[in-house]
Design goal:
Layout lengths: L2 E5 L14 H11 L15 H11 L6 H18 L11 H11 L2 E5 L4 H11 L7 E3 L7 H15 L6 E6 L2 H10 L2 E5 L6 H6 L4 E3 L6 H4 L2
Helix pairs in contact: 1-3, 6-7
Bound molecules: magnesium ion.
The site of magnesium ion (MG) has 8 residues, from loops.
């Protein structure tokens, strides 16, 4: 089926709570030798690399590739540690929905500020990593539109036909704006950091509380 659906991860596929970012924040603390380096940093709808740059700046440290590589090494160590815990859980009925779309032949891809390594650990934990053809990740750009452009370019390389329709599903206003940027329809879900009112004000094509509400649209 030539319909492409992009998914955001945090607050959309993965339930977002205060523990979701522990592996990331622990790795940053270890790298900088401080505690609570992430305190007061708003991570919602941002790329991990953008957040990393802000934390470095707050701590008076310059970015270098060496520092980034060291962070990635520490982050993977933390992800490995947390893979056995329950910090990453399914958001509402996401797992059923993703598997049902995949079984129907939809092309699924990710657009997320999450680094690819973090995305892989989280979605493997949910058992849906293999449902996604590819994605745009936190290392592909600092801003969401760049990440979305990168995701679409990767999909087009792997799937050479044109798409009849595209959707972007996410929990923030930025996901709705990303859909408009790509010329896609937007499905906003109210389970993340933005309220229903805030999402509706951005004019999504659909606004849902759980995925079953678009069953008749996509899984008829
Ligand atoms: Mg999100």
């Amino acid at each position: 089926m030539d319909i492409l659906i992009f998914f955001d991860i945090n607050g959309t596929l993965v339930l977002r709570d205060e523990r979701t970012d522990i592996p990331f924040s622990t790795a940053i603390d270890t790298l900088l030798g401080v505690t609570d380096a992430m305190k007061g940093v708003d991570t919602s709808a941002r790329s991990d690399k953008d957040v990393f740059l802000e934390v470095l700046e707050r701590n008076g440290k310059a970015f270098s590739n060496g520092r980034w590589d060291e962070f990635l090494r520490l982050y993977i160590k933390e992800l490995e540690k947390f893979a056995a815990t329950d910090v990453w859980r399914e958001n509402v009925d996401a797992v059923w929905f993703v598997r049902a779309l995949k079984a129907r032949g939809y092309i699924l891809a990710l657009v997320t500020g999450e680094l690819s390594v973090g995305a892989e650990y989280k979605l493997k934990k949910l058992g849906i990593w293999d449902c996604f053809l590819t994605g745009g990740y936190g290392e592909d750009g600092l801003k969401r539109f760049e990440i979305a452009d990168s995701a679409l370019a990767k999909v087009k390389k792997m799937h050479e036909r044109d798409f009849k329709a595209m959707y972007v599903i996410g929990d923030t206003v930025l996901d709705i704006e990303t859909a408009a940027h790509l010329g896609a329809r937007s499905i906003a879900i109210t389970t993340g950091s933005h309220s229903r009112e805030k999402l509706l004000a951005a004019g999504p094509d659909y606004c849902i509380d759980k995925f079953r509400e678009v069953e008749s649209l996509l899984l008829r």
